[in-house]
Amino acid sequence: MAAVLTAMHVTTAHAQPVNAVPGRLEFDAGIMWAGAQPLGSHDANLTTGTGSTLRLFSSTSDLLGAAGFEGGVAVKVTRTVDARVSMSYAKPQLRTRVTNDSENSAGANVSEVVQQYVVGGGIDWYVASRRSGARIRPFIGGGAAYLRQLHEGATLVATGQSYDVGGGVKVLLASRTRPRQLMRAAGVRLDARVVVRTKGITFDGHRSIVPAAAASLFVRF
Amino acid sequence: MRRIIATLLAVFLTVPAEPAFAYLKFGTRVNGRQVTLKWMQTPVRYFVSSRSAIPGVSVDDFQAAVGRAFAQWQAVPTSAIAYQFGGLTAGLPGEEDGLSTLGFRNRPELDRVLASTNFLVDISSGALLESDIFFNSSFSWSTAAAGELGRFDLESIALHEIGHLSGLGHSALGETELREGGGRRVLGAEAVMFPIAFGSGTIAGRTLKADDIAGISDLYPDGDFNSSTGSISGTVTKDGQPIFGAHIVAFDPATGSMVATFSLNAQGQFSINGLSPGPHVVRVEPLDDAETDSFFDQSLAVDIDFKVAFLDRLVVVAAGGDRGGVTATVSRK
Questions:
Q1: Which of A157, B63, B97, B256 could be cross-linked to A42 through a Cys-Cys bond (beta carbons 3.0 to 4.6 Å apart)?
Q2: Mean pLDDT, chain A, whole residue set
Q3: Which residues in chain A are closer than 8 Å to B277, comparing Cβ atoms?
């Protein structure tokens, strides 16, 4: 029993302290960017007399990377964990590149603008870092979201799910510790994520993985 | 009752009937208005001529091969067309006997016609009364499962002709090249309703394609066809003027399937029905100059003096909706 207690004590002594972010409720708003999502390639093929194919032209489609807006509300759950709900809006271009046309060597880029909404929730877990100073709070997190993509003219909707993991930092620009002040902290939130999308606009039915990043201002109460 | 017979020769020859607006369906004039040629009642009863045996193909072989072709059209899940074998008849195709008859006839003078379909139409109502298909026995034919070298596949050609019998015109989804000694050779086709047959020995024409399925479903829609698919409509212009006879292809980049039509009136209007929901690439091309009479009457001025062009926007098709107002602009060669 004595040996166990000693070991626990040693471990605790070497852990980095995590400074809690002041305040229980956080609002943030800012800009986000999501990377391009390859949708695959298909040829426009004719069938030959032997049953093989004769290409009329080739096509490669991508949902291009796009910047947008993002906002969220976070609630302090424990000293080191916030639960956050967020929403983002972007207008990526769905582009199909046509190449190798048998009669038009110039090919073409044809596109439409997609309206993309992502609404979801997740967890931010503040972690200790030797490099973080008093104003910087590194965190890692993850979440799940509902994905809604409207084709041009809002005539067709594709829905799916979006899962993300990543991390970032919150940089405190102002922090107040006196108990009677409503606003407890304000700062900048920067994060980078890996996003896995299922369904939504997909040509092959496969999951897609895209990078994403966001920068926002936050206030905590 | 006033009747006329409009003979529609399917392979190599012209289609004299007037094309209906959407897709390339057969149409005819009834009391001054355009009516799509189609069967008003199904199942369509067909008969096989008992005089249709030729070397290498018995009447039973013939009946089985055309039966498979009829079954394939009938199996299209989004189409309500149905056919029923009525039995053998001593008559021959082309005889005005009230029976839709399929069989061989020896027509050596038609040296580029493998088969043809004709119709008996009540011009007071536009109703189809009879449609016969003759296969030219001056060619060599086969019903072998894997085809036979030097013989045309009866099932493939029957599949094409039954498309005509059902009311479909020709599709231009294919490429050909001039052949030494005259005629054209098919390099590839993506529609059974392409007007020129593959060469002998191949069975590549035994399978319906997306364009054929869209066409038959457009003529005889069934189930949720109209609510589960959509359409694109618009006009094709050159130098600010509408053009007739431009070939418009809707390509689905998600699946690679193609469905096509033509601009079919003086206003350059087109309509492509039976498209899967989602974005489509629209490609406009001229018909090959040697092919225009396979699709349109020679009296119609088909514009072929323009370059292949793509619409610069993806055209999004919604289920049950029409994406109208699409304007495709092409430029002179």
A1: B256
A2: 89
A3: 156
CA angle A68, A74, A80 (to 5 degrees): 125
pLDDT tens column, A44-91: 999 999 999 999 999 999 999 999 999 999 999 998 999 999 999 999
Kindly report the nearest CA distance between residue B316 and chain A, in angstroms. Answer: 7
Report CA-CA distances (Å) from A71 to A114, A170, A183. 20, 15, 18
Nearest CA in chain A to B196: A49
Instruction: Indicate which of A58, A156, A199, A208 best probes the interface with B, i.e. most B CBs within 10 Å of its own CB.
Output: A156
Using pLDDT thresholds of 50, 70 and 90, give the confidence band for residue A16. Answer: low
Give the SS3 label for residue A107.
coil
- C-alpha B298/C-alpha B43 separation (Å) is 34
- Measured between CB atoms, which of A96, A151, A156 is closest to B281? A96
Question: Between chains, do B256 and A104 touch, taking CB under 8 Å as contact?
Answer: no
Q: How far apart, in whole angstroms, are the C-alpha atoms of residue A209 and residue B67? A: 49
Residues in A touching B316 (Cβ below 8 Å) = 112, 151-153, 155-156
Q: Which residue type does A140 have?
A: I
Q: Which fold has domain A19-35+67-91+114-220?
A: Porin (2.40.160)
Q: Per-domain residue ranges for chain A?
A: 19-35+67-91+114-220
pLDDT bucket at A18, cuts 50 / 70 / 90: low
Taking alpha carbons only, the member of A30, A27, A45 closest to residue A182 is A27
- List Cα–Cα distances, A70 to A34, A116, A185, B51, in angstroms: 11, 12, 20, 77
The residues near A11 (Cβ < 8 Å, ≥ 6 apart) are none
Q: Is the confidence at residue B286, as pLDDT, over 70?
A: yes
Confidence check: pLDDT of A10 > 60: no
CB contact under 8 A, A51 and B202: yes
Burial classification of residue B268, based on how many CB atoms lie within 10 Å of its CB (0-12 exposed, 13-18 middle, 19 or more buried): buried
pLDDT, residue B82, reads: 97
Tell me what ipTM this predicted complex has.
0.88
B194-247 pLDDT, tens digit per residue, is 988 998 999 999 999 999 999 999 999 998 999 999 999 999 999 999 999 999
Lowest mean pLDDT among A19-33, A64-78, B27-41: B27-41
Domains assigned to chain B: 3-216 (3.40.390.10), 225-330 (2.60.40.10)
Q: What is the distance between the alpha carbons of residues A63 and A93, in angstroms, rounded to a whole number?
A: 6
